[in-house]
Fold these 2 entries.
Entry 1:
Amino acid sequence: MIEVKNLYKSYDGEFVLNDVSARFEQGKCNLIIGRSGSGKTVLLKSIAGLLEVDEGEIWYNDHKFSHLDTNAKQHIRKEMGVLFQGAALFDSLTVEENVLFPLDMLTSQNKKEKLDRINFCLERVKVSGSNSLYPAELSGGMRKRVAIARAIALNPRYLLCDEPNSGLDPETGIVIDNLIRELTEEFNMTTIVNSHDMNSVLEIGDKIIFIYQGCKCWEGTRQEILQTNNEALNNFVFATNMAKQIKNQ
Amino acid sequence: MKLLAQIGRYFLLMKRAFSRPEKFSVLYRQTMREMEKTGINSFSIVVIISLFVGAVITIQTNYNIENPLLPNYLIGVTVRDSLLLEFSSTMVALILAGKVGSSIASELGMMRVTEQIDAMEVMGINSASYLILPKMIATVLFFPVLCLLSIIVGLAGGYFSCVLGDVIPPSDFIEGIQYGFRPYYISYALTKTAFYAFIITSVSSYFGYYVVGGAVEVGKSSTRAVVQSSILILMANLILTRTILQ
Ligand SMILES: Nc1ncnc2c1ncn2[C@@H]1O[C@H](COP(=O)(O)OP(=O)(O)O)[C@@H](O)[C@H]1O
Ligand SMILES: [Mg+2]
């Protein structure tokens, strides 16, 4: 479980997060949705501790993450897998070395154990056989998969994904979304996914939080989202005129 | 005020970079890689430049002191001391600031804007130590080697210009570079170079590590890294020459 309470964050006097509170349940895909520039990435990076919030609390189960010192934070970070928007693979390392990286740095497993773990993770995200390729040689979808493999290498309890299907075609996007959902259930992780994509909302959103101009403006399930009266949310969900007409009928 | 904040941030980064590494085996491996990337790959440029500059200094010195009263070997002495005292340390450092400094800044900058540094941090890894410390060790150890190489090749360049270019008899040149030789000059040059290596790597790392934005900013920061480290090298040169040259 991850919980944020009354988060505020501003850049140059402009609020990017404005009193955001939310609870993200374990074993579920929690979605943060909103238009580009609404503050999703800032929220996710704040949750991951990559950005300092101005005010507010971030809780990982019963640890008040936002107020821990660097050493104690490292401890929770080792249980955290993060998938960045551009995959953020280390481009001087091969696929195998990318997944090896956290194992190498943070565990004392022997070579065989590490290799087994790498191959398990790569197989799990269905990219076995490209171990010696470099990120530049992979397609966008494969890069995301390898990044997921790296994120789950250490068996994280928390998985944070920033727009996992951005830059992918809708079909590949759904495959990645479903992969994240399966992994969440399989390893009982607390998963938070940023998205501006309605396909993924309807496919994997167990719990959905809608961010509008830095404020949490709606929360609910994917069944509820289609029937909402919230105007900003409706404009987001039914973005095209055609969709609006269908909704009004 | 902004400058003070920058300096503060620079020192905080250095503090993080020099904190205890996660694993010494990883540090060793990365350091070896960096030695190859920053050191061995700079061999050719140092050799080419030193060879030509050694030859040119010899020819020009001869041209400037064409006085029959001064012995020929003085040219050898002058070339040797120019190389030892300034060229092979400071000038080579300026060249390396361009080559190595810009590559460090753009490598780190690119890792920053593509969130690779964030990815490390979020794993609980000290990215400053993982990325910067190996570069620091590699350059501080290896740039003095390049300085030594530059001295040797520069002297060879001077010698060749005597053999091929009818400047002074080569034997006079050889006599000159041995005349009144003080081994202290070598350790002086090497010490200076180690300082310069620290400046180049730390300043370039700083500019790369804190890039905000995209490809354009990465380019800007790598230019800034070269300019700032060159200025600092020249300032350090003045200070070091005043303090440690006896
Ligand atoms: N480092 C920064 N400096 C200034 N403004 C920023 C910074 N990072 C994000 N912002 C601003 O915060 C807002 C939210 O950005 P972001 O969270 O990236 O949006 P998105 O929902 O598309 O992920 C944007 O208006 C952006 O301009
Ligand atoms: Mg974003």
Entry 2:
Amino acid sequence: MDLEADIVVIGGGMAGLVAGIRATEEGMKTVLLRKGQSATAYSSGAIDVIGYLPGGTVPLASPVEGLQGIASMFPLHPYGLLGFTGAESDTVSKTIIEKVRTAVSWLKATLLGSNIPFFGDIDSNLDAVTVLGTVKPTCMIQETMWPGSLMLDEDSVAFFAGVKGFPVFNPRMAAQVFLEHQISNKLPPRKAGHHVLDLAPFGNNYNISSIELARYLDNEDNLSALAKTLKKQADRIGATHIALPPVLGFNRARENQLALQDLTGAHVFELLSFPPSVPGLRLQRGLETAFVKGGGTLLVGHHAKMDSPKSKIVKKVTAVGPRRNLKISTKAVILATGKFIGGGIIGTENGIRESVFDLMTVSESFHIATNVTPQKLTNTLALSHMGHPLFGSGLSVDPQFRPITKEEIHAAENLYAAGSVLAGYNYPAEKSGLGVAIVTGYMASRNAVDYVKGVSA
Amino acid sequence: MSEEEAYRTVLATLKEEAIYPYNEDEIQVVKSVESCINCGLCIQHCPVVAAVGLDRFSGPRSIAVELSRSPPEYWTTADVVYLCTGCGTCREVCPKDVDIPEIVNLIRARIFKHRPDLVPMQLHAADAILVEHGLAFVPWEDPEEKVESRNMRLERLGLRHVPDQVVKGADVLFYPGCQAEERAQEVKESAKIILDHFKVKFTLLEEMNCCGLPATLLGDDETALELALKLKKKVKDLGVKMVVTTCAGCTSNLARIAERDGWGIPVYHMLEYLVEEIGMVKLTSTFKQSTEEKPLRVTLHDPCHLIKHTSRITMDYAGQILSLIPDVEVTESFAHDSCCGGGGLVSYHAADVARAVMKENLAAIEETGASRVVTPCPLCTAQLEDSLFRQGSSVEVDDMTVFIAQRLPRKG
Ligand SMILES: Cc1cc2nc3c(=O)[nH]c(=O)nc-3n(C[C@H](O)[C@H](O)[C@H](O)COP(=O)(O)OP(=O)(O)OC[C@H]3O[C@@H](n4cnc5c(N)ncnc54)[C@H](O)[C@@H]3O)c2cc1C
Ligand code: SF4
Ligand code: SF4
């Protein structure tokens, strides 16, 4: 079985899908392979761009501020690489910020097209509230997760509503943690209530999962039933804002939010939750929809395998499915296989390996990591602002986002890489995961498209 | 006691304690469980969990990490492990390639062997039929009646009859599978019409036998193997170059056993055969002359055994073929790739669960506004037809092989 493509994208998380959607927009025949589900689908569904500088402990007021810092101090950070344009150095930070802005605004428009409107931009970081009642800075959140004026309006009253038998969310604790945090920071609201609703999606009110609730609320009748009890309870304490766990539906989350607001008269929003979250899956689906709508070929359940000996140009990729192997000939390849969840980078007893092409891997500080065991790249402290250097390991790339070899030249002239398969940034510590995936996916795709147009001309 | 002696002693007590070590093949599958990182993504995607809730079906992760580790007390697993439809969604989304559908088969095989009392009785009944007849269904008692039923179907669908033929050394063995052989005979007939139309030298089996998939799914590995080997001998004797089938389950299972047992020839679904062997050029010119001209809005249902057990490319082919047929407009359903509930023999003993799983598909189908669902599998067809009918829906269901055969240009 054979397929032909201009561009093959390996990996279907944020980086791969951004790259794939962009390539189809440029008229490229694009085939995207996705083996399992991605870290993108696993995430909270909020988009971090940059929350802390590498090694920093003070949260950044805005991604723009962080990008300026990276421009001057961390040239090899994936964001830093965006500044290698050969132009004057004083424009580096401007170049980087413009590129990030372009990619992020484009993504926002694209997701809006998939009915997943996002709130926020790179000029400020937002405060999102989590199911634990804590506040997490992030760059963009789904409209359904935006708390509105809750933390600004002096008179706001928060109401945390949980669901009986849904173990992920304890509204009493969340309300308490949240209120204490706000009061100690002298911020509104000054009042918060909580209640556990009895929804029983399958007739029982125990052992309920978020997916059950999300599906349950995709049904209009169920939603109005929820609205009724919600209103009664929220009115009791005069709530202006209602916080729900992120289960407002898979297909109609935004509509559901608006409907609930209509019915309760309060601002309704979803809290950020643990993985795997419903908003993460919504994000994944929204991206896939955009890719397929744009004419891309999405091959789920196939992993890429290279069987040809290493060469300077990658001409064929084998897609291995459950019972079929497809040979895809292509003009360029974008590797967006993720890190440890996605499977692009694997830690073995011998060292850190790249899983498809066996490319050279490096550590966070750009030392070759092919022979460094994962344990050597962990800190003694499990949780610290430094994170674990392990998460900064991956591929080293040239300014065009092509992986490089020991000799510091590109491994193949038409092979690009994007997303968390890259080294040099520590997403859990910096809070930059999806942002880097978006921007590097966007740029790697642009370079790959230029390359294909060049060889086709 | 020497090490060897100690080993023997322990080995001898295993049986007494009802502990049965895994064999080589099983170990591969069990090992895949070791890489589970407990992420829970599979639970989020499992259609059975979505349909009946975590409390009734504890889901794929629980099968992988808890149930596969509990021998010999299989009683803890039985009520759960028979509710998996084997759709393969969990394996497809698992970031760590944990092969849950195979683990389910493995657990069911162990229960069948060592604790048959825990196997739902409906599955014992199904097994008895497989053992007695070598088919998934009790064959027609009166061959005349079978022919009559076939003729009625041909007439209703406006299809011509291409006689059965058994030809040694033919290029293609057409293998209808039990459903199309015994029940949905129009599918078998349609496949013959298509092969005849493209002048393919094809043959049928002298005597049909099941590929063994239902036996595997209910845990009777011995019968499954026996059926597979019997089929291999028949295929070898016919000396064909490839096997073509119209059933999704047969496609993935035949591909599996053909590789395992060294058949040395490829197995195709009809869709793959048309696109890859007949070719799009010929198909394009063929459907240009299609005489069927009622405009029709259809939606596709993707059989799990094609997309999640064979390759998703098969449904790309389905779309490509439909795009060639004049006056057919395809509207995608948002649940096109969601399990119809018909798999894993769940409907045999827990029809309520199978129906709950199907509900998602039905709602999505209705939403498309299509007047017909097309699906390349006679089992999915039957499952969908039954559910839509129960729901009082006016949407019709066609097996895709039949749908294609009806739209070939009429001969003469
Ligand atoms: C638990 C968790 C929570 C997170 N929460 C957030 C958050 O709230 N906000 C945020 O901004 N970031 C968050 N992140 C980080 C963020 O999710 C990742 O940095 C980002 O998703 C990386 O995107 P990616 O496209 O590079 O990789 P992934 O999303 O992991 O995608 C990799 C893809 O490649 C595929 N693949 C791998 N190998 C192959 C192969 N051989 N063939 C075919 N396909 C292959 C995988 O199946 C997968 O689809 C979180 C991460 C984790 C783990
Ligand atoms: S095979 Fe399908 S039904 Fe069975 S556990 Fe996996 S996802 Fe659920
Ligand atoms: S998706 Fe895979 S790794 Fe995650 S819990 Fe399920 S079986 Fe385990």
